[in-house]
């Protein structure tokens, strides 16, 4: 009898038989529950000291060849149900975790059904250089240890729902072990367990609810069908005896083909797999990866179709152990490419030993046995392909990753030879095995010191921020404002080579600060919460906040506090120096790349004016990529307020008073502006700054932070609504601030955009640090400008109201300043 005739006979037999009846009749096993259970599951036996029977899925694509559209469709349907359960917002923040080896493809498919969820699957293949992010045990399996090896550890660190996907939910032990292990390390508020079938016993049914109460999280269950397996007493011993009897009686594990040459030619098909797409989710698979794979699938399926032998009518795409998703998507695309002329089926090889019985009432009719060919960590051993021999396939397309394309694969007893003995045509398709890039090692790691922290440097608590700066507190850097302005405008010195004398506010000005803080604290809290929520939703579930010192530092501290208050996250936060015209501190970037994934870094600043620093950062990062070869830093700045419409990530675009702009070091941890001077900062040094310890009595830094943070509980609902609106809005930068600055520069005869400082914050800086010429105020501007008006009065600077000003105010630095330039009253400008 030929393999094809054998397969046709099997099909006739299966039409009237349930593939679990053989086991049920001999061991008294009962499968009870939803009507569709018998269509979804068959039964088999295996030699396992913990469980005799095996539920064999007809729609998973592991042991039983099935139409790829059926396999993929079940996963998509489950994913869509999870999306409906969670709602759009929570689904957008979800992460999917599939179990190795049987549910790696199913987990991927569920993530596809969710639409935007990244996916990870556990693995039993350690990868050199990739650190474990966790692990757990599968108690009933023949191979228990699961490893979690995400390339980006932050993948599991967010607070969005974690969706755990397995083929069956039998006792619940695996899920319980997983959730406990992960919740201890990455706590979150919601879990969703997904399985094709829920087969828990009544005794196990309540354990999921018990776990939810134990950890204080919600745990939902989504399945295609549910039921239970009723096992008679002594089934384990009876099953082991039945397996042993059949193994002794079997003369060969696989029926030998007859009527043709017992060995076919093994050819190859070049897929041209996209180089930037991982072969699976062992190290994580993102929506961007999914989009690139979707675009490449039609061409790869066409290459497979062209390589098939003429006249092939029944084709199997055979995956390889954990490599389930890539072969499934290739099979699905091939199915659509060849249409109804060719029956495409899909299954994979496995590590799981199962008894084969050639009976229509048994799920595993035949098996091929071959040695492992991917150099597994647990050593050599047998591997299996079930229901391939005798199934009448005209061709098999074996899909493996490059790590498994070894001499053992092509050995006389290897998988290729085993397939060729039973199928006329065998094609091998190799997917490049994805290996995460090792983290960048800095060229001079020993020369980059650890960040400075309070109380030794700054009045902030040590966990609030680490300063990637060097301490220049003992160096005299201050110069009179007039001297600095003349040197800067004449080109004799850069503004970052000296420091202005620290402005000591009058009692009246301090009262204005406290009044402004009291009235704006809630507004600030809303903006802090909104920008942090956007960062967590769009940039990284566990970002590394990097403030642009020093104005960005209080904002970074507040964002860190919000993330801890709202989500229980303890985010890293650093402050680095960026200097207009000279770029960002490259040594600080090297330190960050050595300690964190650059893709997680989010640069933070207080506000935008005309967008000069936004442009400076983008140019500096491009230069850094060229000089150091380190990529991944995102130039998009997150700001509290974006009145200049220069960025996408902001809490508000209103130009309002941020009280921290009213003061200098005394609201910024007593830290000066950053300094970059060649005689003080060498090529291997961080930029410098001073810690004004002597101003401790006047320090308002903790008071400012606390006044805003104490309002967090009051604004939570408002933040949720504001963040939701912003996430749905078109936040494309218009750069209208830059256009306004250029217009003002020409209209007022300045002809230098660097001397035009738009917005309340920048205007305040002009009044405190530079030689101001005049202030333009939007007509009708109210209390937000009280402090600016006071400073203008003290310094003899006119305030001119402008009807159509796009900002609340604009500060103009005195153009072409020389010592003797005068203010509005005709006197030399002085502090």
**Uncertain regions spanning at least 5 consecutive residues:** 1-15, 139-144, 251-262, 440-446, 818-831
The description of the largest β-sheet is:
7 strands, mixed
In whole angstroms, the N-to-C terminal distance is: 104 Å
Question: Please, how many helices?
Answer: 23
Number of strands: 32
Percent strand: 15-25%
Oligomeric category: single chain
Helix/strand class: alpha/beta
From the alpha carbons, calculate the radius of gyration and give it in angstroms: 33 Å
**Helix content estimate:** 25-40%
Please tell me about this protein's structure.
The chain is elongated, with a radius of gyration of 33 Å. Helix content is 34%, strand content 19%. The model is unreliable at 1-15, 139-144, 251-262, 440-446 and 818-831 (pLDDT under 50). Helix 14 links the parallel strand 20 and strand 21. With 831 residues, it is an alpha/beta fold. The chain is built from 23 helices and 32 strands. The relative contact order is 0.09. Residues 735-814 form the PELOTA RNA-binding domain.
Main attributes?
831 residues, alpha/beta, seven-stranded mixed beta sheet, six-stranded mixed beta sheet, 32 strands, disordered C terminus, TRSP_dom, Phosphoribosyltransferase, glycosyltransferase activity, transferase
In short:
This protein is of the alpha/beta class and 831 residues long. The protein is 34% helix and 19% strand.
Q: What topology emerges from the helices and strands here?
A:
Blueprint: H1 3-15, H2 21-27, E1 30-33, H3 37-40, E2 41-45, E3 53-57, H4 68-86, H5 88-92, E4 95-98, H6 104-114, E5 119-121, E6 134-137, E7 145-148, E8 162-169, H7 173-185, E9 190-198, H8 207-215, E10 218-230, H9 235-249, E11 266-268, H10 287-307, E12 314-320, H11 325-338, E13 343-349, E14 367-371, E15 382-386, E16 395-401, H12 407-410, H13 415-420, E17 425-431, E18 466-467, E19 470-471, E20 478-479, H14 481-490, E21 499-500, H15 507-538, E22 544-549, H16 552-567, E23 573-579, E24 583-584, H17 586-595, E25 601-607, H18 612-628, E26 638-641, E27 649-652, E28 688-689, H19 701-709, H20 712-728, H21 736-747, E29 756-758, H22 760-769, E30 772-778, H23 786-795, E31 799-802, E32 809-813
Parallel strand pairs: 4-5, 4-8, 8-9, 9-10, 11-17, 12-13, 12-16, 16-17, 18-23, 19-28, 20-21, 22-23, 22-25, 25-26, 26-27, 30-31
Antiparallel strand pairs: 1-10, 2-3, 6-7, 14-15, 23-24, 29-32, 30-32
Helix pairs in contact: 4-6, 4-11, 10-11, 15-16, 15-19, 15-20, 16-19, 22-23
Protein name: Phosphoribosyltransferase
Pfam family, one: StiP
InterPro entries: PELOTA_dom, PRTase-like, PRTase_2, PRTase_dom, StiP_N, TRSP_dom
């Amino acid at each position: 009898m030929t393999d094809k005739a054998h397969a046709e006979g099997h099909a006739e037999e299966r039409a009237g038989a349930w593939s679990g009846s053989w086991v049920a009749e001999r061991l008294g096993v009962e499968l009870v529950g939803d009507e569709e259970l018998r269509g979804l599951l068959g039964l088999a036996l295996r030699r396992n000291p913990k469980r005799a029977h095996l539920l064999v899925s007809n729609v998973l694509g592991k042991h039983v060849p099935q139409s790829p559209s059926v396999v993929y469709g079940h996963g998509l349907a489950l994913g869509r149900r999870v999306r409906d359960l969670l709602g759009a917002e929570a689904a957008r923040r979800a992460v999917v975790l599939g179990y190795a080896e049987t549910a790696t493809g199913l987990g991927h498919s569920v993530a596809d059904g969710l639409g935007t969820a990244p996916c990870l699957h556990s693995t039993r293949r350690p990868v050199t250089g990739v650190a474990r992010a966790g692990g757990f045990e599968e108690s009933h399996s023949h191979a228990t240890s699961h490893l979690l090896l995400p390339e980006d550890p932050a993948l599991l660190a967010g607070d969005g729902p974690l969706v755990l996907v397995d083929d069956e939910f039998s006792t619940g032990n695996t899920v319980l072990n997983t959730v406990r292990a992960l919740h201890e390390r990455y706590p979150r508020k919601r879990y969703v367990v997904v399985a094709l079938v829920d087969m828990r016993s009544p005794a196990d049914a309540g354990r999921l609810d018990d776990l939810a109460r134990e950890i204080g999280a919600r745990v939902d269950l989504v399945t295609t069908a549910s039921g239970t397996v009723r096992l008679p007493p002594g089934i384990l011993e009876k099953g082991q005896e039945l397996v042993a009897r059949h193994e002794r009686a079997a003369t060969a594990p696989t029926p030998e083909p007859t009527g043709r040459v017992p060995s076919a030619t093994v050819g190859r098909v070049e897929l041209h797999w996209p180089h930037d797409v991982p072969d699976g989710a062992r190290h994580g698979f993102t929506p961007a990866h999914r989009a690139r794979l979707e675009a490449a699938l039609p061409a790869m399926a066409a290459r497979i179709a062209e390589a098939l032998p003429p006249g092939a009518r029944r084709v199997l795409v055979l995956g390889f152990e954990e490599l389930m998703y890539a072969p499934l998507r290739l099979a699905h695309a091939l199915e659509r490419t060849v249409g109804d002329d060719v029956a495409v089926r899909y299954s994979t090889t496995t590590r799981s030993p199962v008894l084969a019985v050639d009976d229509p009432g048994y799920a595993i009719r035949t098996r091929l046995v071959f040695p492992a060919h991917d150099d597994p960590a647990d050593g050599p051993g047998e591997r299996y392909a079930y229901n391939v021999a005798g199934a009448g396939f005209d061709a098999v397309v074996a899909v493996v990753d490059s790590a498994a394309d070894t001499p053992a694969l092509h050995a006389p007893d290897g998988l290729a030879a085993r397939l060729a003995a039973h199928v006329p045509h065998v094609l091998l398709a190799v997917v490049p095995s994805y290996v995460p890039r090792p983290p960048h090692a800095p060229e001079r790691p020993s020369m980059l010191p650890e960040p400075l922290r309070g109380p030794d440097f700054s009045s902030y608590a040590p966990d609030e921020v680490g300063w990637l700066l060097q301490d220049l507190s003992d160096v005299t850097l201050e110069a009179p404002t007039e001297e600095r302005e003349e040197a800067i405008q004449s080109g004799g010195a850069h503004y970052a080579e000296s420091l202005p004398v620290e402005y000591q506010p009058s009692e009246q000005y301090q009262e204005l600060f406290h009044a402004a803080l009291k009235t704006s604290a809630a507004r600030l809290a809303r903006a802090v919460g909104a920008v942090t929520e956007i960062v967590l939703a769009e940039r990284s579930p566990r970002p590394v906040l990097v403030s642009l010192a020093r104005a960005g530092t209080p904002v970074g501290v507040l964002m860190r506090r919000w993330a801890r208050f709202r989500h229980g996250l303890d985010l890293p936060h650093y402050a680095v120096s960026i200097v207009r015209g000279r770029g960002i501190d490259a040594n600080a970037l090297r330190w960050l790349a050595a300690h964190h994934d650059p893709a997680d870094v989010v640069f933070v600043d207080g506000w935008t004016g005309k967008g000069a620093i936004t442009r400076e950062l983008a140019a500096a990062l491009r230069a850094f990529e060229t000089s150091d070869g380190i990529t991944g830093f995102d130039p998009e700045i997150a700001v509290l307020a974006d009145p200049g419409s220069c960025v996408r990530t902001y809490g508000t675009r209103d130009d309002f008073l941020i009280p921290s702009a009213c003061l200098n070091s005394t609201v910024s941890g007593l830290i000066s502006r950053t300094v970059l001077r060649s005689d003080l900062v060498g090529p291997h040094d961080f930029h410098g700054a001073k810690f004004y310890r002597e101003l401790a009595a006047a320090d308002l830094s903790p008071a400012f932070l606390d006044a805003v943070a104490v309002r967090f509980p009051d604004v939570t609902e408002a933040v949720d609504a504001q963040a939701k609106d912003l996430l749905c809005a078109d936040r494309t930068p218009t750069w209208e601030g830059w256009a306004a600055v250029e217009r003002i520069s020409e209209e007022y005869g300045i002809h230098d955009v660097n001397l035009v400082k738009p917005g309340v914050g920048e205007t305040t800086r002009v009044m405190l640090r530079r030689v101001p010429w005049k202030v333009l105020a939007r007509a009708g501007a109210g209390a937000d400008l009280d402090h600016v008006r006071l400073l203008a009065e003290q310094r003899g600077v006119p305030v001119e109201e402008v009807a159509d000003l796009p900002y609340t105010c604009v500060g103009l630095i005195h153009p072409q300043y020389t010592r003797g330039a005068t203010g509005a009253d005709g006197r030399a400008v002085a502090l």
